[in-house]
């Protein structure tokens, strides 16, 4: 199963959770300090809310959640084969999950990730990653802007 991910910066996590719960008729799948995500079945959407990062109401990043590492690898091969610069991260702890992912930036700089969740992990309050963005990224082609991206 694949679904589009939309990660938004919010100023008040509780208000955002209340609003999006009503909008989509769903409760969050995961809530942590400064972070929540919804796994919405209809329409298929992974909505991520990141409190205190960037301008409230602005886009944090976009993504596509896929079922397996094989699908992430296939996406990386297709993207780099089409001439797009990408960065891969294997076994990265990000957004309270262990993930394999590939990043690519759209022409106007919007960061997109194609990722699979391998398991849940915990982080200290307010921390969304255990490594600095890009430290564990393997770039394909020229170094992309997306190697500097993370979940917040």
Secondary structure elements and pairings:
Blueprint: E1 3-10, H1 13-24, E2 30-32, E3 35-40, E4 45-51, E5 59-65, H2 69-81, E6 86-94, E7 97-105, E8 111-120, E9 138-140
Parallel strand pairs: 1-4, 5-8
Antiparallel strand pairs: 1-5, 2-3, 3-4, 6-7, 6-9, 7-8
Beta-strand percentage range: 35-45%
Biggest sheet features: 9 strands, mixed
Unreliable stretches (pLDDT < 50, length at least 5) are 135-152
Radius of gyration: 15 Å
Identify the overall geometry. globular
Helix content: 10-25%
The tally of beta strands, per DSSP, is 9
Distance between the termini: 25 Å
Total of DSSP H or I helical runs spanning 4+ residues: 2
If strands are numbered along the chain, what order do they take across the biggest sheet? 2-3-4-1-5-8-7-6-9
Write the H/E string, N to C.
EHEEEEHEEEE
Label the structural class: alpha+beta
Mean pLDDT: 83
Describe the structure.
- With 152 residues, this protein is of the alpha+beta class.
- It has two helices and nine strands; from the N terminus they run βαββββαββββ.
- A nine-stranded mixed sheet has the order 2-3-4-1-5-8-7-6-9, covered by helices on one side.
Search tags:
about 150 residues, nine-stranded mixed beta sheet, about 15% helix, disordered C terminus
Provide a concise account of the structure shown.
The protein has 152 residues and is α+β, with helices and mostly antiparallel strands. Helix content is 16%, strand content 41%.
């Amino acid at each position: 199963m694949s679904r589009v991910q939309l990660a938004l910066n919010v100023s008040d996590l509780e208000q955002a959770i209340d609003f999006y719960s009503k909008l989509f008729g769903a409760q969050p799948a995961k809530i942590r300090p400064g972070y929540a995500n919804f796994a919405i079945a209809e329409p298929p959407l992974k909505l991520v809310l990141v409190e205190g990062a960037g301008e409230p109401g602005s886009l944090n990043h976009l993504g596509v959640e896929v079922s397996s590492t094989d699908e992430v690898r296939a996406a990386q091969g297709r993207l780099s084969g089409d001439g797009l610069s990408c960065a891969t991260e294997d076994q990265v702890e990000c957004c309270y999950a262990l993930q394999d992912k590939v990043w690519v930036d759209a022409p106007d700089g919007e960061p997109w990730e194609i990722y699979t969740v391998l398991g849940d992990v915990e982080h200290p309050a307010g921390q969304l990653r255990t490594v600095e963005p890009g430290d564990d990224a393997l770039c394909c082609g020229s170094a992309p802007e997306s190697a500097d991206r993370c979940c917040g």
